[in-house]
Amino acid sequence: MRVAELWRYPVKSMAGERLSETMLAPLGLPGDRELVVVDGTGRIVTSRTQPGLLRLRATRDADGRVQVDGREWTSPEVEARVRAAAGPDARLVAVAGPERFDVMPLLVTSDGAIAALGVDHRRLRPNLVVGGVPGLAERAWERRFLAVGEAVIGLKDLRARCIMTTFDPDTGAQDLAVLARIRERFEGSFALNAWVARPGPVAVGATVRVLEAFGEALPPRLGRSVAR
């Protein structure tokens, strides 16, 4: 098995960027979901209720600054786009702690499972896609570990999926059949909630091994789940 894809989402609920290499730090990929959209009360707003956010693309430039559709995230142009997508009081704010994650800092899936589901896997918003995995083998990986070079990823459990999977990442069109398929064929769950058991560099093409155990590693304590 190997690392087939790496994804980072600099702004929670916006489209992300593919990477060729990155570090795995205690809270996942550096720069992942470092910004969130909030409303006038400070509550996090996501594409679960404002799917227009999915059509905005967040990246980081060579200096590490977040860009939205190629513009500095603090610019008036980005402010206008965020408000158009998420409401007149919506704004971007930086969040450094684990509260920016829904469940765990990483989401892992595999090419075999993606093929079985049969939809654009960007709907799933994974951080890491493992290639060379037969069929639905990933569904037996709960409570195991993945070794990727020096890094080790802990796999907690299968992710319960929500309405966000129904939105096309390019057009924004909704297809409720996608979530119905996940519920009927995959018991409502797809991909694995994961965490970093040992930090280290990872790169596309790197060998991946499944480990039954890894020392005394325990997942981080994160806050209550919030929307994506």
Structural topology:
Blueprint: E1 2-8, E2 17-19, E3 21-24, E4 35-38, E5 44-45, E6 58-60, E7 66-68, E8 71-72, H1 76-86, E9 91-94, E10 106-110, H2 111-117, E11 128-131, E12 145-148, E13 151-160, H3 176-186, E14 189-198, E15 200-203, E16 208-211
Plain-language structure description:
- The chain is 13% helix and 32% strand.
- Strands 2-1-11-10-14-13-12-16 form an eight-stranded mixed β-sheet. A three-stranded antiparallel β-sheet has the order 5-4-9. A three-stranded antiparallel β-sheet has the order 6-7-8, with no helix packed on it.
- It is globular.
- A hairpin with a 5-residue loop joins strand 6 (58-60) and strand 7.
- The chain has two domains: 2-7 and 19-28 and 102-211, PK beta-barrel domain-like (M1 Pyruvate Kinase, Domain 3), CATH 2.40.33; 35-100, no CATH class.
- With 228 residues, it is mainly β.
Task: Give the tags.
16 strands; mainly beta; single chain; 2 domains; M1 Pyruvate Kinase, Domain 3; about 230 residues; three-stranded antiparallel β-sheet; globular
Question: How would you concisely characterize the structure shown here?
Answer:
This protein has helices spanning 76-86, 111-117, 176-186; strands at residues 2-8, 17-19, 21-24, 35-38, 44-45, 58-60, 66-68, 71-72, 91-94, 106-110, 128-131, 145-148, 151-160, 189-198, 200-203, 208-211.
